[in-house]
Amino acid sequence: MADTAKYIRENLLKKFEFQSYGHALEILRNAFPEEWDDLQDCLDQLSISIEDLRTAG
What angle do CA 48, 20, 45 make, to 5 degrees? Predict the structure, then answer.
């Protein structure tokens, strides 16, 4: 996780588990910084409760 911490906001690292394959995080961060910030903004707002997961449909 030490490598991913350079590319992902600290609050998101506490909320989710991230994996990076083939330098994906480095590519997103460096080649598409605005889009990566937008993705992180969306993840920051994402909230899924246990009840949401248990609800059918």
Answer: 25
Higher pLDDT: 33 or 22? It is 33
**Nearest 5°: CA angle at 26, between 22 and 14?**
100
What the block records as the tokens of 14 is 């506490």
d(CA 25, CA 51): 31
pTM of the predicted structure, to 2 decimals = 0.77
Rounded Cα–Cα distance for residues 52 and 28 (Å): 30
**Closest to 45 (Cα-Cα) out of 17, 16, 19:** 16
